[in-house]
Specification:
single chain, 261 residues, alpha/beta, binds nicotinamide-adenine-dinucleotide
């Protein structure tokens, strides 16, 4: 039997890590609803799901808007009959300091990156409780532990995700709902391409910038979305049944020390 047969999952974000997690869970037998705002990416993922005959439905939603999350989650729950797993991967990554980031951009970052985790729990926890438990996996970042300059809103949101993960883990432990976070280093996704173009200009050779980013990691490379998806799937599985409230770094050693000789 496939590992996630009979499980029902909700994933936010239809590119990068969200896409990889949704495909991993669906290929392992889960019924998966994916919420996304990127129309082209939503369509591409839905097409792939159909081509592979997966139980995967993509629903358009802005994950920072309560009504849109509620409608999309109600649709998914009605279609699949419940909810066992939430993986919160959607995020925005504004660049700037507290001086140069507008307050609107700061609040938007907090609403998308952190508010969405609140919203999916608000609507999802009662459904998990009905099924006797569940798992929530939140995508944070190494930037929630130690940060770069010039990304203060993003860093604030990622630190908040670590704190919210701990709070939710305590609040929902009696319901047998586990809550964990993942802190990746650099991973080959559109958000990292945005970083490459922000630092190197719109014409940047993405592969060579990725190699340079990779060289900053002790393992000498950036990560792949499928590697993060494998960790998310492990944390969402029954094998991780005693794990809650914790953050899990997947960063090629980036935050282990103060450099490689
Ligand atoms: N790629 C990396 O190097 C890296 C490193 C550390 C942490 N992360 C985290 O991993 C997670 C996934 O990012 P990714 O690397 O896959 O990048 P990504 O840009 O591919 O994924 C982010 C997704 O969020 C979606 N999104 C943005 N705003 C939204 C909204 N309002 N409503 C719905 N969807 C929205 C985007 O359309 C996109 O599909 C994020 O939380 C990110 O912060 C990524």
């Amino acid at each position: 039997m496939k590992e996630f047969q009979g499980k029902i999952a909700l994933v936010t974000g239809t590119t990068g890590i969200g896409r990889a997690v949704a495909l991993h869970l669906a290929r392992q037998g889960a019924s998966v609803a994916v919420l996304g705002i990127d129309v082209a990416a939503n369509a591409a993922l839905q097409d792939l799901g159909v081509a592979e005959a997966l139980a995967l439905v993509v629903l358009h939603a802005d994950v920072s808007v309560p009504d849109e999350v509620h409608v999309a989650m109600s649709t998914a729950i009605a279609r699949f009959g419940g909810l066992d797993i939430i993986v919160n991967s959607a995020a925005v990554h504004p660049y700037g300091t507290a001086e140069t980031t507008s307050f609107e951009a700061f609040m938007r970052c907090m609403a998308v990156n952190v508010g969405s985790i609140h919203l999916t729990a608000e609507f999802g926890v009662p459904e998990m409780r009905k099924r006797g438990g569940g798992v929530i996996v939140n995508l944070s970042s190494v930037q929630g532990h130690a940060c770069q300059s010039g990304v203060s809103a993003y860093v604030a949101s990622k630190g908040a995700i670590h704190a919210l993960t701990r709070a939710m883990a305590l609040d929902f432990a009696a319901d047998r709902i586990r809550v964990v976070s993942i802190s990746p280093g650099s991973v080959r996704t559109p958000i990292l391409e945005l970083a490459a173009r922000t630092f190197e200009g719109p014409e940047a050779d993405i592969e060579s910038v990725f190699q340079r980013f990779g060289a900053a990691h002790p393992l000498g490379r950036i990560g792949e979305p499928e590697e993060v998806a494998a960790l998310a799937a492990f944390l969402a599985s029954d094998k991780a049944g005693f794990i809650t409230g914790s953050d899990h770094r997947i960063d090629g050693g980036l935050t282990a020390g103060i450099g490689v000789r």
